[in-house]
Fold these 2 entries.
Entry 1:
Amino acid sequence: MCDTCGCGQPEDAVTIKKPGEAIFTSENNGVSLDNHTHTHSHNHHSHNHQHSNHTHGKTIHVETDILIKNNLTAERNRGFFEAKKILALNLVSSPGSGKTTLLEKTLLKLKNDILFYVIEGDQQTMNDADRINKAGVPVVQINTGNGCHLDGKMINDAVKKLEPEGNSVLFIENVGNLVCPSLFDLGESFRVVIISVTEGDDKPIKYPTMFESSDVCIINKIDLLPYVNFDIAKAKEYATQINRRLKFFELSAQTGEGLENWFNWIGEKSSKF
Ligand SMILES: Nc1nc2c(ncn2[C@@H]2O[C@H](COP(=O)(O)OP(=O)(O)OP(=O)(O)O)[C@@H](O)[C@H]2O)c(=O)[nH]1
Ligand SMILES: [Mg+2]
């Protein structure tokens, strides 16, 4: 899994914050930590050396426990979303594939017809939450510190802070990473993996777990196809080898090409939920 990259950090290294708000952690209940600007970075320094002492068997045991615990919390989230009729979409991808750009375009187009909420996940900064805030949609930002994925507990905490109304759509933008987020169920209704054409068409077979665990695959930045060596048919064939259930969208979040099909899918799924 990801025990060498900081995912085993203490829970209080994670902050959950609305734009313009003091830092919230599970320990301080929203009391400002702004004078202590480095809360995120202290927790991992002394741990790196310790991991080499773990035996392989112990590591697997701990990871299994973490995933079982996560699955239980994710199921609680899923029950809440189902009871409130909230369509929860977990957006996963490499960094920079265009997740936030796609969200901005989607929210601006559909927000008069659909009630939206957004949870943003990044290791650091409020940048993406600020972008969503500008689009006029309620948002909370999770900063994972050294963590490379969102987990069920973070979503549970963020949802308590966001207080979404029912009959709505909740977008969760995961931390940019094609590996670790694939292992962590958040309780989402659908997982949406995004690849952009600048990343290479072999991503599905290099990172199969993410494609195997997703429901939808968006191929973004098709406006750049004339300039890069990316074969859409091959990328889809690779992805289909991994997961025959995948539904594909080819689009450019920047130019708007292909967005209509994505908008229609969200409209259809949210109305049925
Ligand atoms: N040419 C082109 N550029 C795009 C497209 N979508 C996004 N971008 C650009 O790609 C860069 C990254 O976009 P973001 O939306 O921030 O990507 P992200 O996946 O949210 O990034 P992280 O949150 O850091 O993982 C920005 O410079 C965008 O303008 C697209 O369809 N075409
Ligand atoms: Mg983003």
Note: Residues 29-54 have pLDDT under 50 and may be disordered.
Entry 2:
Amino acid sequence: MAQITPEMTISSVVDRWPDTARIFARYGLSCASCAISKSETIRAGATGHGGGRVNIEELMRDLNHFADSGKLPDNLPAANATAGMGGMKMRGMAEQKGVKHVIAVMSGKGGVGKSLVAGLLAVGLTRRGFRIGVLDGDITGPSIPRMFGVREKPPVAPDGKSLMPPRSRGGIPVMSMNLLLPDEGEAVIWRGPMVSGAIRQFFSDVQWGELDYLIVDLPPGTSDAPLTVMQALPIDGVVLVTTPQALAAMIVTKAVKLVKQLGGDILGIVENMAYVRMPDGSQNEVFGPSQGLKLVIASNAPLMGKLPIDPEIAHLSDVGQIESYDSPEFEELVNNFLSVAPEKHPQVPVA
Ligand SMILES: Nc1ncnc2c1ncn2[C@@H]1O[C@H](COP(=O)(O)OP(=O)(O)OP(=O)(O)O)[C@@H](O)[C@H]1O
Ligand SMILES: [Mg+2]
């Protein structure tokens, strides 16, 4: 007998079989249906979103085949292919902009170093010749502009309709709500629809130019805030950041689930504040032993890097000089990112 029926809610099916998110996504029932609506049945979703065009018999057949055999249908597009998180329309939106890949940095818990990892990826990839931009999707915090020492108000572009992103010392274009506020300390308390509107504009109404990667710093958590941002952008892949504390690690499993529900891919996990380097060269794991292996098992994604607690990091991000940071662990992080990222070689500019 079929395990999955059209009267079951989409979210209950995805909760039980997370990989079915990819099957739903293929039938045009992606993000909105599974992650936001907890009450929508498969039948309601299929008749609503697909404009009645979703072939519910085929959908049910694929879902039950997966529930019975654990095998995804052969002809399913790869999770990071065009029908990934953003869907076809969103991908088109990115290509039109000249932005090749949008990568989001996410964490379950606040304060684990998400903004730092977003910043470091941008710096490391720029050093390797990629064209990078940073979109601060955490509209309540000043982390990104502060870390890069960017304060300039984004000037209006010559077309009079869009904004030019201010650039860091090293030339990285940065866009943040913080740059638009009269006072850096001013907190933004906005509702979801306003946030998605702002984020979408940060993407479409900002002159990013040609980019290999646009790195997006997401708000903390695994709830509405990061979800709102992710749904507003054509995201290709997600980098997850955590610290070794058991609690933080547990929340990561929630984040993994969220990204899966969106039909997306976790590119890798970064374990931040993993240890302190002692004067004798040993590593002191102040936040407890590494959870790396556990995370890899939980997420089925590689451990992309392990960063120590480094006073230099804290100092440089406070004074806006993150672009001067260097360490072997940082190098390794960027190399590992490139080994799993959707684009592995810098574009040689055409003269
Ligand atoms: N490995 C590290 N070594 C030293 N300081 C660090 C390290 N990682 C992060 N920090 C510092 O810890 C603070 C929090 O980091 P960060 O702002 O990147 O976290 P976050 O996850 O983005 O936080 P939020 O949830 O508030 O957005 C910052 O002051 C940062 O400079
Ligand atoms: Mg942050």
Note: Residues 87-340 form a domain with the Rossmann fold fold (CATH 3.40.50.300).
